[in-house]
Structures are given as structure tokens and as C-alpha cells.
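Q: Sequence in, structure out?
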Amino acid sequence: MILNSPCMFQVTQPCDAMIRLCLWHGDPINCSRIFYPSLTDEGMCCSFNKVRNEFIFKNPKDTSDLNSTLHYPSVDWTLENDFPEGAPLDSIPWRPWGAGRHLGLSVVLDANIEEYYCSSEASYGFKLLLQNPVETPKLAAFGELISPGRESLIVIKPIINKSSPNIASSEPELRQCLFNKERTLRFYRHYTQRNCILECEANFTLSFCQCVMYFMPKDRYTRICGKKDTDCADKAKCKSDRHTNEQGP
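A: Exactly. Output:
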């Protein structure tokens, strides 16, 4: 079953209404050309620098693109393999030219507070999530709260742990990590820890509740959980999280 919910569009602030001004590398850029809606565990969010579904999922036609128009080309990028040879300079994911706020992304946001009715948090504002471009956003667990009416500076200090190909001959249990080609997921094209966890959560929810949550990976024949399935889906998430914490992904 492919998600096609007019209700979700009607109750969600559109990206072009939320994001009023954008600067990239210090230059103005049309926000509607670089942000587009994507599904998360807290509804729809506005994504920047996320690759097309065809480079995330094995079954992109079974995954709703929310009727988005993507204005820039994407490439088959992964953290392990980087950009493919000959990738255009304007292909997603974009790369900043250097460090500093003038070379990053700056946005002006409109919270539209007068339209708030029911929020996932006891406050107004936004949630920000920094993620791998080939992963599904999970705002509920990892989102950072951003207050309206203030300037927020987000500093990214990446810690890169890159494995040498020379250790590939060692057993995964010994090196405590996996190369991308060593595990195959059913729905995702590339193995990452978060993709693995979300796919495991989807599989467990399906077996436990006979449905999956709308934001989870699925095929076109899988039933999407409705309101009456909420309690079951919440129990499935708790059981899945407990198993992941005890056993690892």
C-alpha cells in the first residue's frame, strides 16, 4: 500500500510557508528548489541534501515521494564509497566549500504559531535533525529542538571512523564493524546501522501487529497501521528497541 494521505498534507505546514529565506555558500537560493517534504516518525518534514528515493530504496516505486519535484540531480553516494567517478558538481548530496557559517546553509523559518493545534512537544518551534543522506529521518529520537524568535547556530564537528580495506579479511566480530557489501537489507540499497534498525523495527511491527507505521520501509502490499493499531505499534517499538539495545543491530 502506497501512502497517499491528503489529511497529512492538510495539517502540515508546507515547506515553502515554513522556510522563508535560504542562503547557501552565502548566496540567496530558492528554498523550494532545495527543500522538499519527506516522511518521518513525527509526520512530514522538509529535507535538504537528501538523495532521491531511487538511491535509498530498492523499491522506490513502492515508496511515496509525496509528489515532490527534485530540481537537482542525485548520485549513488555512500559514506563508504563517496561520490561515483564523474559525478556533476551540483549533484546531491552537496558539499560546502569550507568551514564557517558563510559557507554553510542559512535559513529563516516561520513557525506560524497561530495555526498550532496539537504538537508532539509541549512547546512551539522546530526540530532539526542532521542525518546521513541515504537514511530515513527519525526525528522523535534524535531531533534537536529549535526555538522560534531566536538565531540558532548549529556547528557540525564530524568524527570520521574510516576502516582500511586491509581489515576486510578479519571477522566482523573481531573488527566490530561492517562494510556496506557485507550485509544486505530487504528495502534499503545501502547498509547503515540506522537503516538496519528501522528495517528490523518494521519487520517486527509487521509480525506483531500485521501492519507497519507509515514512515517505515515497506512494499505496496503491506497494510499501514491506523489509529486502532497505535497501542500495538507502540508495544512493538518498545520490544524492538529493547532487543536492539540488548543484542545490537
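The mean pLDDT is 86.
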